Amino acid sequence: MIVSIVETINEFEPFGRQLMPSHPKENGLSDPNHLNMWTTAETDPSRDLFRTIKTINIKDKSLRENWRLRESVDGEEELYFNDKVVIHSKSDGQQLSHLIKTFTIENSIYDAIWCIFTDDLSKTMIKTICIFSDTLLEIFTTNGDHYPIALQFQVRQIFSTKYGLLLERLIPNTESDDKPLPLIFNLSHPLKEISPVIISRFGPTLKAQQIGYITAKDKLELVAVIEERSLLIFYNKQSGVHMIFVLREANEDEIKYVTNTSNTTLYDCFSCESPVIESPFILSNRQLSHPTNTNTFTSESSMASPFRSRSASLSKQGLSSSLGIFSSPSAFNPSSQSLTRSRTSTTSPSVLTPLRSSRLAASPASPSLRPFVNTPSRSFTPTISDPQISRLKEQYKSPFSSFSPLSSVSPKNRNYDYLSDDVTEPLMPELSLEHLWSEVPSSVSERASKVFITTDLTGQLYICFLASQSQTLKLIRLDQSNDGLKLIFGSTNIISAKDAEPLTTLNMIVTVDTNNNLVLFSGLFKTSIIHLPSTLCTAFTNSLLLSPSSTLSNRSISYQSPQYKRSSLMTSSRPSSATGVFNPSFLSESKLLSPVIPESDLENSSFMSPMSIGNIGKITAVRDSVKDRITVQCVDSSLYRFALPPISSSYIVSQCLSALKNVLPRDSSMQLMTKWYAFRNAPNSDELSVNRELNLFKSCLLSLIGYDIESLNLNLDTNSSCHSPEVTKKMKLNREEGTDDDWEWLIANASDYKSITSNTSHPITPSTLFPHFPSILYSLHLVYEDLKLQEPNWELCPMIVDILYLFAVDLKVNSYQMHYLNDFPNNCQTISVESRISDHDLENLIIPSYFKDRCPSINSKILSLLELNQLTDNLFPYIANTTNDLYNIVLLFANLKTDEFIADSRVLVPINILKVDTDINKYKINSNNVFTKTIQLMNILGLKSETLMHLPSGLAIPLWDAIFYCRNNPCNDWNRSCFKLIGRPDLVTLQPPYKKPIKYSVSKLIVESTEPDDDGILFLDNDVLKLLFPDDQRILDAYQMLLSSKPVKIAIQQKPGVSDHDFIEEQERHLYTICIRTMALPLGRGMLTMQSYTPVVAETFPIPKLCLVGRVPPRNNTIDLSHIEVPQNMNTWPLFHNGVAAGLRISSKASGTIDSTWIVYNRPKSSSSLNNTALSSDAQNEHAGFLLALGLNGHLACLSTMSIHDYLCKGNELTRVGVLLGLAAAKRGTMDVSAVKVLSIHVEALLPPTSTELDVPPIVQVAAVLGIGLLYQSSGQHHIAEVMLGEIGRPPGPEMEHYIDRESYALAAGLAFGLVTLGKGNDMIGLVSSAEGMSMADQLCHYMLGGYKRPLTALQREKYKTPSYQIREGDCINADVTSPGATLALGMMFLNTNNEAVAQWFTIPDTQHLLEMVRPDFIMMRTISKGLILWSSIQPTKEWVESHMPSIVSENAFQRNPNETNYRLDYETMSQAYCNIVSGACFALALKYAGSANQKAFKTVMDYTEKFIAFSMKPHLAEQAGRSTIESCLNVLVVSLGIIMAGTGNLDVMRVCRYLRSRLNQANYVLYGSHMAIHMALGLLFLAGCRATLCSSPESVAALIIAFFPKFPIHSNDNRYHLQAFRHLYVLATEPRLVIPRDIDTGKAVYVNLHCVVINESNSCEIMKLRAPCFLAELHLLEEVVVDDERYWRISFEKDKNWQSLKHFLLKDGVLYVKQRTGCLPYSEDPKGFKSLYAQSVMKDAVKGWTHKVNTATEFSNDRLVINFTKYLISNRSDTEFEAEIQSKLCSLMFDCASNDRLEFLSPLMKLTESVTKQSNTLSLWQIKLAKACTKRCQSLKTDFVESTRSLIEKRIKNSIDKNLLYKYLRGTLRLPEFTTTLMETIVFYDMPPFASLASLPDKLSFVDLMTDLQSKYCVPITTINLLYRLYFQ
User: Fold this and answer.
1) pLDDT in tens, 396-448
2) Is residue 464 within 8 Å of 500, Cβ to Cβ?
3) Of 1229, 1164, 1162, which Cα lies nearest the Cα of 1194?
4) Of 418-427, 675-684, 866-875, 1726-1735, where does mean pLDDT reach its minimum?
5) Torsion angle, CA of 912/915/917/921, rounded to 10 degrees?
6) Alpha carbon of 642 to those of 92, 94, 627, 924: distances in Å?
7) Three-point CA angle 1540, 1544, 1549, nearest 5°
8) What CA–CA distances, in Å, run from 1894 to 819, 1864, 1910, 1930?
């Protein structure tokens, strides 16, 4: 048999070879004769001549060229390497190719392969290209990482496995047998060690004789690796047999055994004598006498493995060997020869050395080694860098690993002796080899040149060994055990072949036989010979073309394109003797199915030498098989690549073949497949249409059964009747005009489909498949039923029904005959009703157990599932993996009955039980609702909404109904595919992978300014702000109040008598007052513009200037502060705040943009000019704040160690503060070791006592102390807490140290202590401080209240033996220094512990004497701390605030009467205590309700704020407490208001801030700190442009306490009590909780109603109704969040189901995509809903009473389907009554579907209406019957519609009933030609009894007899009996 290649065969050249002439290679020079597409500045040869000189080598270098091909998604990938260049490209499998990437390395390449590694940490796949040279293994990943690995031993070859990369070590000739080394190694990750592979001889059961390593003594050579099965094939050079091992993960016992240091011996797994082999990985205690090389490095330079905890440097063993490399014959290049390259090293390194030394330590991939080595490789395409190498290395290396620069010697001439150290811990093996099979020894042995796995056409596995020298292909049968876990090796067969390649998609093997022909095999069976057009092919057997009388000597003939006829390739059922001629179609069956070619055939065959035709010579090899494409190599090394023809191209033929394969025995199935493949792809075959291919299949199948094809008149389109289209076309080209033959040819080929016609009955001559005739009919019938379940396949049903009817007639199964007649009577009428099988042959048929006389009908089965209330025992058959639609639909409809899940075994039965997937029944469906269960089952079965569009209407309706139900009520725990199935794109966006469903542009704010916006206000989302504040422009007002980059307006009038000079000074003094306020604005502006900007990588980040000048209208003259005295450097910290405000604009989404390089790029450039010194200092201060902002946003974590060192060494004090505090904020709570080291350098208490004293500025120490607290946040680390506790009471000194800003240092230490012990007070209350000898809580209380100092420890006495030169405190604790920090530390330590005992320490004194002993501001601290401890008792009421106040204070505060004098009562003390108690209680109240916008809390604090404002406006009241006290407490109250109402933009608070900031004339007590507090409160109101708010978690509360510490600075450089940099730590307490609904179709922000289930303070749930955009409550207080809006689809977030989705979109950008319901408008367009209701009411009125209006549908929806439906179907009123009624029905359908968002339902409903007029087959009638059965269960299907449609169909059928034909049908006298479509419609629609059901009744029927007979035998419905009564008895 011969198959022909249809496509044109072109000569093949690897794409990489085409690019090589223009590639610059390693020297940067390319061929001048080729256009250089690669030239860049980097590759310009004139740029560096040394690169060219370096490549000069006098040694002869042989050219190494090879390539690999593999399958890709849409074509093929090619990996080509030549010398030192690797080219990775991709093609479409034809002619189009494009370059992906090229790599150029320094050394000659021996091999390059694809390999996939697995990251054990992230469980992700790392796709790589591995390039193997003489000394390096270079790994390049797809994301740009580069891992050069210095090979520590000589490698012979590498392979890719699913566990990583497998390496085979090359055995040196000088290797000693005393202590052999392992040969096989594995690399599981580019950053892991190369580990040896264990071998287990008989299995994983641990026995000493079974475990070991493959060594040189075993004489094993790795031949091939089969990656998909993890099989390794070895060749034993001693015994000459092949062995197969499976690669698996090593178990713990195996690893423990081979790494056990007590065992020094391992046994050889292959030797009977089991000689002792010492493990090369076990430390030898013997001192070897071999001399060591004194010129090598000493033991100090030896490297320890990063995976070992310790190393030992012992004496080295010198084993003489030469470093060489061996390139094995390439298995994928048949023309390659064995290349051996040896290179002698200058020394004799130890072979053990590379195995024991760290590969990472010696690898140039280590960043610490890069300064010492030359890069061993480079990528020629854009450089592949390794930006994540440090991160990956940190994941895999041990913290105890060390790296020596000495190990970075160039690998080319490396002396390995210095690495030959022994270690105490071995390399840990990861993989193990388990022996599976060994070849039977034979006299002739040969190493296989190729090994591969193939599958034959029946699914049988074979492993194939190709022996090139003996020209044989050995096939070993593979089977799997019952559990599928083990392979069972069967018999071995041999095929003669020079070369072979597997074809995966065809399940065949293409071989080159001994006569250089291409022969196809499927397993052991020869399929055909491949005929190459225009190519010389010697005939394998020319008896195909010659008569039997031809002599063997004359058989040789060259066939290029012989004109075969289809009829000549078709086997007749009659023997050749009967026809009188030899049948040239096929080989005899014995030869066809013979696994081995008989020697007699080979001896008797005569083959001529090939004739030279064209440029193609004799084929010698095949290679590079990818799917169905192969490359052939000719004797002249030319290559040709082509695709083999497919087995089938049409769906119906593929289904039929698959069905037959599943039911026929394996031999019969193979005969069918081989004959069909050769028959379909015979020479001169063209592209086949569906009809032509199906006709060919019918002919092939009928001939194999034994039919006489000629008598059936199958009418195959053969070349005997007319010219082929190709030939006809050529003939037409030679004629000027056409002929009548052309027209006749077109008419003859107008339709490819030809039905079987047989008017005479020729008996069947049983052939190969005849015994399996019933199985063939049954399997093809199931395919036929399967086709009915896809409406596009309905046109295929009549194509196959003729052959099915023919089979049913011949097998005499009447139910099958009537089944096909009911469906397509016209296609069955041409077939004779007489059986062609004799009775004797019928007895020889094999009747399978599943074959039943009753014909399986899928429509009847589904109808019974819908109508019956319980399942029947009648299981429906299906063919596993073939009739998938049958399986899916039956299982789905069985589960539409009840809420209980119905397993497939209860309704289905497979007829190929042995081929059923055992896991197909394991469905995990957790649902008690029938609709949700249906959706989950559809998702598991792989059904999509596109699939439902192809289902028949009766089947699609109930499934669409389940979708519509779940669309309104989706389950929250579904996955992405389920949401996509039900048509909820809004819910799809909430599932990973998260993608933006629609592109939308964010509108910007419009600011009346022509200058660029450096403040960042324009980057806020104006669409969201318009929805939040639709009625005012408060955001612009806030922006104007926080603007600091524009000159301020000086609007004062010159009074009469004031000179110009004095007026200028007055203007400048006014300007100075305004500048005090301006310098405080950046803190508020940073809050407003936080996370609103994504920087551009190539641009410098803009920082707005801090403008301290003014302009005088109307001329806008500029005024500065040059004529008055101002504090020096007063703008230092304001510039720092300005930099922080600018940096906070960077969005958290910019993490992929910001890296260490970008941060350093934005560093201000240093200037040596004296004029620019001040400017440079200002830029540094701003950059310092910028660094802190990056840390607060989490971006500073990517700053490299070298950059951190550079900043700390060369930066000013503020820069160091920004780096330290930012680094700690970015890594807070992580206890990161590197960050701790950096911070500890600046904290003296954390340094060793003998460390060198460092000059650390005080503010840097303060920042470092708090940074330590941030790093150890909530850790409860005892040592750090103890150090911070000691730092609170640190005395001044020694000498001049620690005397500046002691208060801020003690406060920072107290806050750091509070951070470390946050909320852990009850757990740590008993911990005793080692330095003080008392509990930490008691020590803090001692610091808070004061008292005598504790005695110093010996270490402290030594340190402070020299007292301070500035401060003398005496023997008592200075509580003014220690009390604030200790007070807050106690409060944070016992946060929310409700410890009453500790809370009593903070009780306010109730006597005047005790009150006078406490500073008033300390009273505020104690009130705050008491609230922190008794957190749950905080209530948002005035009563709770007043409860902190002693009666003496509440009764006497602000009660002094000027007319009465009471000298015994200090009213000022009482008033000050009142102010501080109120402000402290309000601050604690604000902390608990931070960001909650709680109205009760807001009203409480607002009342006190207004009260204090009133105090400040009344002098007699203000003087009682002091204006400064009232001002400071007022600042705390305003900040408390901002904390509660954060992000809400509350107008009341904004008005308070506007008033307070306008008090410029009260500069005596409205200081810089007041403006700072006011504008911070204003910034909190518009936090992040109203997109974020504050959180009240313990960590957030701590950050708020630090940021809003209630003692604000007096002037701009004041850091005495609190470091100003801490004011920005509020960022750590921010939380994005704003829900921004956006329409998923338009991208516009919209209003949406939400309801939230909130847990209140009494732990009960209450429902809160909101309108988004809005802030949600804190997520831990919520149980459920639901989009509950009649205009939008429902979305629900439940805590136990999809809570992570809620968290994700809030953290991402807060955008919640919503889907608008049809007929509704957004609230911005229709606030009250009148327009939406109007649209719906118009539509309802338009269709009421079946009236018809044209324009209402288009007004209702703008959907294209609605518009086109209205335009073409219901726009023009029909004149006929019947069509008008249908138009009214369509209008009703349109309204019902569109108004309920069910437009998908329109298609199946319209198909039902089509059946009213459609009369082609009965399949459409089944759909109305199924739809009627669904009406009770389908909520979306209206009963009146189904009934009206059914009545119209009934009316049509009744009018066309032929009583006589129906009577004949029931009586059984109806002849076959009288079966009509109309009659069949009547029978199907009315469920008539079967054919001849009334034949037994008497001639004269009575109605009683009729009704009794029909009811008892056939269960005929009453409607049918009534019809029969009206037809025959009325």
Assistant:
1) 443 333 333 333 333 333 333 333 344 445 678 999 999 999 998 888 789 99
2) yes
3) 1229
4) 418-427
5) 20
6) 13, 8, 11, 46
7) 65
8) 18, 10, 9, 19
| Phi/psi at 1575 (5° precision) | -80, -25
8-state DSSP, 713: T
Longest CA pairwise span in the chain (Å)? 149
**Distance between CA 1133 and CA 1116 in Å, rounded?**
28
Alpha-carbon distance values, 1246 to 344, 1071, 1265, 1282 (Å): 55, 47, 10, 11
Alpha helices in 835-972 (DSSP H): 839-843, 858-867, 884-894, 930-941, 945-948, 953-968
Task: Read off the pLDDT of each residue in 265-292 and give the average, rounded to a whole number.
Answer: 38
- For residue 376, pLDDT beyond 50: no
For the chain, helix (H) and strand (E) counts, in that order, are: 68, 52
Average pLDDT, the chain: 79
Residue range 680-728, pLDDT digits in tens: 888 777 778 898 899 999 999 999 999 988 877 664 443 333 333 333 3
* d(C-alpha 1788, C-alpha 1745), whole Å: 10
Q: pLDDT tens digits, residue range 473-500? A: 999 999 988 777 788 999 999 999 999 9
Q: In this structure, what token pair is assigned to residue 687?
A: 């592209």
Closest by Cα among 1775, 1802, 1774 to 1789 = 1802
Residue 371 exposed, middle or buried by CB count within 10 Å (0-12, 13-18, 19+): exposed
CB 1802 within 8 A of CB 957: no
User: What digits encode the pLDDT tens for the residues 6-57?
Assistant: 777 888 999 999 999 888 876 555 555 554 555 444 445 444 544 555 555 5
Q: How far apart are CA 1527 and CA 1518, in angstroms?
A: 10
- Residue 488 DSSP label: E
Cis amide bond preceding 1095, omega within 30: no
DSSP 990-1045: TSSSP--SS--PPPPP--S-SS---SSGGGS-HHHHHHHSTT--HHHHHHHHH--S
**Pair 1449, 1474: CB distance under 8 Å:** yes
Rg of the chain (C-alpha set): 45
Positions of E strands within 481-552: 487-496, 499-503, 508-512, 518-522, 525-531
Q: How big is the chain, counted in residues?
A: 1930
DSSP SS3 for 1238: helix
The closest alpha carbon to 528, from 630, 718, 676, belongs to 676
Which amino acid is residue 1014, in one-letter code? D
Give the torsion sign (CA, 1749, 1687, 1837, 786): positive
DSSP calls for 555-579: ---B-SS----TGGGS--SS-HHHH
Instruction: List Cβ neighbours of 1674 (8 Å cut-off, separation of 6 or more).
Output: 1491, 1492, 1591, 1592, 1593, 1631, 1633
- The span from the CA of 1573 to the CA of 1566, in Å, is 11
- Model confidence at 1016: pLDDT above 80: no
Close Cβ partners of 856 (under 8 Å, ≥ 6 residues apart): 781, 782, 785, 876, 877
| 615 Cβ neighbours under 8 A, 6+ residues apart | 11, 638
Q: Identify any residues that bridge with 876 across adjacent strands, giving them in sequence order.
A: 908
User: Could you give the 3-state DSSP secondary structure of residue 851?
Assistant: coil
Helix (H) / strand (E) containing 103: strand 97-105
Contact 954, 1823 (CB under 8 A): yes
Opening angle at CA 1570, ends 1565 and 1576, nearest 5:
175
CA 1593/CA 1564 separation, integer angstroms: 38
Helix, strand, or coil (residue 1093):
strand
Instruction: Write the pLDDT tens digit of every residue in 921-934.
Output: 567 787 788 999 99
Rounded to 5 degrees, φ, ψ at 643 are -105, 140
Q: How many CB atoms lie within 10 A of CB 783?
A: 23
| Residue 1738 pLDDT | 54
